[in-house]
């Protein structure tokens, strides 16, 4: 049952990614097209998600600025942006506590960070990777995006992380105090 649910979520995620790719005319069907003219054939049904984000430097830099500002606000004790789901519905969202947990990770308090949000190390790693890839020179940037796309094509880690966060969120809703 869990494996079937995971496949449904994974198919839904990658159908949306392929729809966005077609809408933006980024990729011909069946491959991840790069600006260098090289295509990565998609032998499996896993299409890159993180690599598409990294490919657009402007979008990546805006996202990094927003995350950095939120992290700075939390680290100096200011409230930062409030979660719209928690504010309106009164329940935690899958990302509630993530900013606080990342600040705790940066400060070195791993135990409290993991207790606040278990996926904080994954998101902190992704943000650091986004920062490094976005400042690389043109040729190295393209190579890094190609490499990440190839890894995503092979293991589809975006779907695994999404599935894990959803399971973690459901667990946190039913067992709020661990």
- Tally of helical runs: 9
What kind of oligomer do you see? single chain
Shape: globular
**Strand sequence of the main sheet, in spatial order?**
1-2
| Helix/strand order, N-terminal first | HEEHHHHHHHH
Give your account of this protein's structure.
By secondary structure, the chain is mostly helical. It has one domain. Helices cover 69% and strands 3% of the residues. It contains 9 helices and 2 strands. It has a two-stranded antiparallel sheet. Strand 1 and strand 2 form a beta hairpin. The longest helix is centred in the first third of the chain and has 23 residues. The protein is globular. 17% of the residues are buried. About 11% of the residues have low confidence.
Short description:
The protein is mainly alpha-helical and 178 residues long. Helix content is 69%, strand content 3%.
Q: Topology of this structure?
A:
Blueprint lengths: L1 H23 L6 E3 L5 E3 L8 H6 L1 H19 L8 H6 L8 H10 L2 H7 L3 H15 L3 H18 L1 H18 L4
Antiparallel strand pairs: 1-2
Helix pairs in contact: 1-9, 3-5, 3-7, 5-6, 5-7
Name the features:
178 residues; mainly alpha; two-stranded antiparallel ribbon; globular
């Amino acid at each position: 049952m869990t494996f079937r649910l995971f496949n449904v979520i994974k198919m839904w995620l990658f159908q949306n990614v392929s729809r966005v790719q077609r809408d933006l005319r980024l990729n011909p069907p069946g491959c991840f097209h790069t600006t260098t003219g090289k295509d990565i054939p998609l032998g499996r049904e896993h299409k890159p998600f993180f690599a598409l984000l990294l490919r657009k430097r402007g979008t990546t830099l805006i996202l990094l600025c927003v995350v950095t500002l939120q992290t700075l606000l939390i680290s100096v004790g200011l409230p930062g942006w409030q979660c719209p789901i928690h504010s309106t519905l009164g329940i935690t969202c899958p990302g509630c506590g993530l900013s606080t947990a990342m600040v705790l990770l940066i400060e070195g308090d791993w135990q409290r960070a993991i207790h606040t949000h278990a996926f904080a190390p994954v998101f902190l790693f992704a943000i650091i990777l986004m920062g490094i890839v976005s400042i690389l020179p043109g040729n190295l940037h393209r190579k890094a995006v190609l490499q990440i796309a190839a890894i995503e094509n092979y293991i589809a880690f975006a779907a695994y992380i999404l599935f894990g966060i959803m399971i973690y969120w459901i667990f946190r809703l039913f067992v709020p105090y661990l």
